[in-house]
Amino acid sequence: MNVTTKSGFCAAALALGIAACSNNTRPPESAMAEVSATEGGSAMESIAEARCARDSRCDNIGPEKRYSSMEDCVARVREDWRSELDQRSCPAGIVDEQLDECLNAVRSEECSSPFDTLERVTECTQSQICRGD
Fold first, then answer.
1. Three-class SS of residue 130?
2. H or E stretch at 84
3. How far is the C-alpha of 25 from the C-alpha of 30, rounded, in Å?
4. What is the DSSP letter of 94?
5. What phi and psi, each to the nearest 5 degrees, are found at residue 81?
6. pTM of the predicted model, to two decimals?
7. Contact 52, 16 (CB under 8 A)
């Protein structure tokens, strides 16, 4: 695996809260929300990745599963939730602590619950994660 590929994988793993790429240092917990929003590309990308972390935990990713891979999951969730994610765009920026609460709520959503809309997660409303003007 080349350095560029490993860096991208590690950034994605970090955004998902997975400690898969340790070089014996890990950002402090207080930095996780900021890392997830910036390293993951955007808050919307981080939300899609958190949803796929939940689907991975619920055994919905892999051969013969709902999603063939994490990449497939993220791409399909972004497409399926496009309008909901767009509604959560934040022109004034993100409140990192609130985004972290949103991501944790998405990741911990029950496997037995159908998770078809982001609206189910009250921690992820625009008023919760966006900075005021």
1. strand
2. helix 82-86
3. 14
4. B
5. -105, 15
6. 0.65
7. yes
